[in-house]
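Q: Protein A?
A:
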Amino acid sequence: MKDLFEAIESLFVDVLFLPMDALRALELESWGAANILNWLFMLIGFVAFVYWMKQLKQFNDNNEEDRDPTAHSFLN
């Protein structure tokens, strides 16, 4: 049983965490390069937010939403 847990440890430490070790080493050289993936995710989230707001404005301008307080059952 001990060999199984040591094999799992070896898999994670020696193989699966190698990208994290590379990022840790890269962070000492360049903070921006080490965080490029974070910046990419924030950019994708910002673009999605802007698209969502434009769609909401479009529906609002077309008066497609029923704004009557009784239009939704949870508002009763």
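Q: Protein B?
A:
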Amino acid sequence: MLHRGILRRVTGASVVVLLLAAFVAFYVADRAGAGAARCQQHRVDARERAATVTGDGERVLVVGDSWSVGLGQDDLRRSWAAELSGEVHVRGFSGSGFSAGASHCGRVSFHDRAATALGVRPALVVVQGGLNDFDQPTRAVDQGFRDLMADLAGHRVVVVGPADAPLRSWAVPRVDDRLEVLSERYGVPYVRTSDLDLDYLDDRLHLTEDGHREFGEAVAERIADVEPARPAVLRR
């Protein structure tokens, strides 16, 4: 027979365990709900930005992440891509990257979205990203890049690498270097942006309005210097 003091301690411990379990369950459910809501908002933003075409001239397709979408801006139409020359079509999705695991919102990697994005029949494809691949294995980045190049074979392509966003600054050099190696391997020009000193929002990851303009102007200038005269080819 249990002593009353021991019984009280056991009962008290059980209550604590049950409360902790309930808290954990609530936390997990809340996080799942927040994640679903965030992904849904990303889809809404992606559709809104895709519906906006800026400029005129040669048709340019931008496949990118939240920077291309304009996340954090009051007007998504003013994302950096609007600074590019030509008739610019943006197909971006916040949180996406070269690797399949960069986003938790399903199949939204650059490769997963490229085939549909090419429906605009671009003369030039600009792929912008890398910040969301910061924690992905090199092999995952390699595979995603290879699949993307297969999608874009026969098109003129430029790859624009990640800027040195303070929140992920520690990971930028690895991703930047890898994307440059892969771009050379698949015969497409690579534009580094990690040297740019840009203005960021308080989250230290996304650009302010001025930051978008500065980034867009720099990318437009650098693309003009390296823009490919020939379509990309798939190299196995």
